[in-house]
Design brief:
The complex is a heterotrimer of chains A (315), B (282) and C (338). Chain A has ten helices and twelve strands. Chain A has 315 residues and is α/β, with parallel strands linked by helices. Chain B has a single domain, classed as Orthogonal Bundle (MetI-like fold), CATH 1.10.3720.10. Classes of the chains: A alpha/beta (315), B mainly alpha (282), C alpha/beta (338).
């Protein structure tokens, strides 16, 4: 296997719970992941599974409690988040956010928003920065006439493009996309997805594509990781994971997509991420296949060919 | 300022006649403060017992006071002092209060606790009484009036800035700013501060009105500016004793001008907020 | 023989007077809903689907003006009814559930009390058991939406509950008085896939059980396909196609519907095969809007499309508002009631 661009090992993130002394919320629990150069990896899971936290750890907006984040051979977890903003690696990892409106400073014009990372992270002159802004705006299909506009003067699709242009301006190697089309209309979504696919082809980027829309992930990613309550429960090639999911949670998730036939109903509520017992499978209690063994021994992520599954019953 | 900004300002002014009125009044007061002393018909300090306590007439628009001084001239000249006090005090509050509030709201933790406790302590006092106390303790000078007014207004800016920073702390564009290479200081200064300006602007104008009232109030009770320096509060105080005996104009005109000034500042707040808020641009 | 429809909207038009111009939000809408039928109203943002439902309930924005047409519910004219009559109708006969449950619930009032408010307001609703106390009926309402341990939940505040549970509470509020028509305005947008499935199962289950007509508004065509008997597709304030779900997906007649289908990932094999809808929604404030509002985005458009508005034939089994539908439309016959 060629050297990974991003290698995550045993990453943990725990938050203290206000009001209860000593209790910790395990948002990300022992996550290991790798992304190769030019590879697109999907991350799926429902709200509360920890994917937002994981993504912010990898983008170095948050500091992990434990674990290693190795990017292009360099250990990043040791550098504190506030200091990372001025680190040379900052430009290599960029992010596109879910809500295009929320991710643009209302007081900045589109041009200013795209130019800012260039001003802070590169040594380009003013004229070079303007030229680069124009170049990347055209790459994402944003008409140059829209650049002087403010966020509230742009449509949803246009704002999404500004967000992508801003992330691409500094030529990152890894682009993290946090549900980039969730807030967009269906027809605009299609356009943006095609744009993202094309950009990856042309620029040779790696993607970490987070989404709850499994169809989108299936089309846009080579591999996918499924998260549940802070843990990765299954990984594998995207198409294979959706056609034949091995973990019971993935199976339920796939069956819940409209048009996927009989639904696997999950009973009960998601168990609490606060101080979860270490020896119990996180999915136990809702899992249609649960057994006593699941309450005594938490399954670890086992390799099965090209797949990894954290379940006692995966063949 | 570019053409787009002027167009926006004209639009805001045109939208609401009250806004235009407020801006016009404010402009009038600024002009009075700047040029008043050179343009008034009489020397504000010159007394002339022969014309003492004259009602308003063609020669003396606002009448004369007990020492024969022209009230109109005194009122106009007082504008410079009152406005000066108000502007300095509010500027000081703003410059100190906003950064403190932004930092408190953004960082949270013990920084937040210290700033809010200090702010709460100030607000625990009836503010005018606190101002009185400060001036009485430090001495009757204009400088101390400014200081006292600045201190009692601090909590307003701290609160506004803290609320903005707190709300926006988790916003996507703050995270995007970090990704773009902004350190904490730059985020506060370049990103958060301009977004906290619109509500702060409303505070500024309300505070200006309040600061003028504060200064006038302190002078009225004898703290702060001393006679014969013309100052609206002193002018009202000097005329207070004559109301019952029928010479109403001695207090009335300075009081009316004072009221008008505060009124125009309050109205100005909305106009300023509309001008500063980019979301109001169509 | 089909029954008369419960809700009949004919040639309905609505516009908004704004400072930027008059927005012709809806034009010539024909819609029918029968008792027990689940109809999906599908369209993108700006298509007018929510505007239509608010207008039917009489809760439109104040800038709204009805430009024509009629809306009759159970024999009663909704558009000319006065506010007192409509207020009585809302919650008792016609109910609505909204997109974000947290904003629909009062955050400082306990859930049980909110339910009791609704029950008390419509105390004389037929079919409701008057013998039990309000508290018991509130608990029953929660039980109907599959909330476990309802007596304990009555005392909870909305912030103590998850998004999915808040949604269920909102459904309970809407259905407490057993209305005959439920309007669900994007009730699952923003919810997780599994929660979405559970909520939709709940709504459609209750609808079938109580023979309740349901108008399900969404932008997600695939979701509508899974749950609705009939689908009405809207574009820029027009109803462009109306058909039973199977027929719609087997053979969409309107170019917009076909494009909508081909722009969603769904069962596609690759990103490249996605075909987005060309162009943008026309600005509805324009005075020079083409008669068929899809004309500027349609590769089949001709001069006729710009001059003359094609009408949706409400009586046809598979109605389409297009001069050049993708296939021949089904022959005219009485609207089938599923």
């Amino acid at each position: 296997m060629s050297e990974a661009l991003l290698q995550v090992e045993a990453l943990h993130k725990r938050f203290p719970v206000s009001g209860r002394r000593g209790a910790m919320l395990h948002a990300v629990d022992d996550v290991s992941l790798y992304i190769g150069p030019g590879e697109s990896v999907g991350l799926v899971g429902e709200s509360g599974c920890g994917k937002s936290t994981l993504v912010r750890l990898l983008a170095r907006l948050l500091d992990p409690s434990d674990g290693r984040i190795v990017f292009a051979g360099q250990e990043l977890a040791e550098i504190r988040a506030e200091r990372f903003a001025r680190c040379p690696q900052r430009a290599s990892i960029q992010m596109v956010f879910q809500d295009p409106t929320d991710s643009l400073n209302p007081r900045f014009s589109a041009r200013e928003a795209i130019a800012e990372p260039l001003r802070l992270l590169t040594r380009l002159s003013g004229a070079e920065i303007d030229a680069r802004v124009d170049e990347v705006a055209l790459q994402v299909g944003l008409p140059l006439t829209l650049l002087p506009r403010y966020a509230h003067q742009l449509s949803g699709g246009q704002k999404a493009r500004v967000g992508i242009a801003r992330a691409l301006a500094v030529k990152p190697r890894l682009l993290i996309l946090d549900e980039p089309t969730a807030a967009l209309d269906v027809s605009v979504q299609a356009v943006v997805l095609q744009l993202l696919a094309e950009l990856r082809r042309n620029l040779g980027l790696s993607y970490l594509f987070v989404s709850h829309d499994l169809n989108v992930v299936r089309l846009l990613t080579d591999r996918v990781a499924v998260m549940y309550l802070g843990k990765i429960v299954e990984t594998g090639p995207s198409e294979a994971v959706f056609r034949a999911p091995r973990h019971p949670y993935t199976q339920a998730l796939v069956s819940a997509i409209p048009g996927q036939g009989p639904r696997i109903k999950l009973s009960g509520e998601v168990s609490s991420p606060i101080d979860p017992p270490a020896h119990v499978c996180r999915f136990h209690g809702r899992c249609p296949q649960g057994e006593d063994r699941c309450a005594r021994e938490a399954p670890s992520l086992r390799r099965l060919g090209a797949r990894e599954v954290a379940c006692h019953f995966a063949a | 300022m570019n053409a787009e900004t002027w167009k926006h300002i004209r639009h805001v002014l045109g939208e609401n006649p009250v806004t235009l009125l407020a801006v016009a009044l404010f402009a009038l007061f600024v002009l009075m403060a700047l040029f008043g002393p050179s343009l008034v018909p009489y020397d504000p300090l010159a007394s002339n017992s022969a014309v003492a306590l004259q009602p308003p007439s063609a020669a003396h628009w606002f009448g004369t006071d007990a020492l024969g001084r022209d009230i109109f001239s005194r009122t106009v000249v007082a504008t410079r002092l009152d406005l000066g006090i108000a502007v300095s005090a509010v500027a000081a509050s703003f410059v100190i209060g906003m950064p403190l509030g932004l930092a408190a709201g953004f960082f949270g933790g013990w920084w937040d606790r210290i700033v809010t406790r200090a702010s709460d302590t100030i607000m625990a006092f009836p503010l005018f009484v606190l101002a009185m106390g400060i001036v009485a303790a430090l001495g009757n000078t204009v400088g101390n009036i400014v200081l006292a007014t600045a201190i009692i207004n601090l909590p307003f800016y701290v609160r506004v800035a803290r609320a903005e920073a707190n709300v926006r702390r988790g916003a996507g564009w703050i995270e995007a700013a970090r990704l773009s290479g902004n350190g904490d200081a730059r985020i506060l200064a370049v990103h958060l501060f301009p977004n906290a300006l619109p509500p702060a602007m409303v505070q500024v104008s309300l505070n200006m009105g309040w600061a003028i009232l504060n200064a006038a109030g302190l002078s009225f009770i004898g703290l702060g500016v001393r006679p014969p320096t013309p100052e609206w509060g002193i002018l009202v105080a000097e005329g207070a004793q004559f109301i019952v005996s029928g010479e109403w104009w001695v207090s009335f005109f300075p009081g009316a001008v004072l009221m008008l000034a505060v009124f125009s500042f309050n109205l100005l707040g909305d106009a300023l907020r509309d001008i500063f808020d980019p979301r109001r641009r169509t | 023989m089909s029954q008369p429809p419960l809700l009949e909207v004919r040639d309905f038009g609505l516009e908004f007077r704004t400072r930027g111009g008059t927005v012709r939000a809806l034009e010539g809408i024909d819609l029918q809903l029968h008792k027990g039928e689940i109809v999906g109203l599908v369209g993108e943002s700006g298509s007018g689907k929510s505007v239509l439902s608010y207008a039917l309930l009489g809760i439109s924005d104040r800038a709204a003006r009805i430009t024509g047409g009629s809306a009759v519910f159970g024999g009663m004219d909704l558009l000319s009814a006065d506010e007192a009559v409509l207020a009585d109708l809302r919650g008792r006969e016609i109910s609505m559930i909204f997109q974000s449950p947290r904003t629909a619930l009062n955050p400082i009032r306990r859930v049980g009390l909110q339910l009791q408010d609704v029950l008390r307001r419509h105390a004389a609703a037929p079919g409701v058991d008057l013998g039990r106390s309000l508290k018991e009926r509130a608990a029953q309402a929660l039980r109907d939406v599959a909330i476990s341990d309802p007596e304990r939940r009555l005392a909870a505040y909305p912030f103590e509950m998850s998004g999915g549970m808040c949604q269920r509470v909102m459904i309970a509020l809407a259905l407490a008085c057993r209305p005959s028509l439920l309007i669900a305005d994007e009730p699952t947008t923003g919810l997780d896939v599994t929660t979405q499935a559970a909520v939709m199962d709940l709504i459609t289950g209750l609808a079938r059980e109580r023979h309740m007509a349901t108008l399900f508004i969404t932008h997600d065509l695939a979701l509508a396909a899974d749950y609705c008997d009939r689908i009405v597709v809207m574009h820029a304030g027009h109803a462009v196609e109306c058909a039973p779900t199977k027929s719609l997906f087997a053979a969409p007649l309107h170019p917009y519907t076909a494009r909508l289908m081909s722009s969603t990932p769904g069962e596609r094999s690759s990103i490249v095969s996605l075909e987005p809808v060309p162009g943008n929604l026309p600005d509805l404030r324009r005075s020079d809007l083409p008669a068929c509002r899809f004309a500027e985005r349609c590769e089949r458009a001709t001069e006729r499309c710009r001059r003359e508005r094609p009408r949706l034939d409400g009586r046809s089994a598979h109605g389409v508002a297009c001069w050049f539908p993708l296939r021949e439309a089904a022959p005219l016959r009485e609207s089938a009631h599923v």
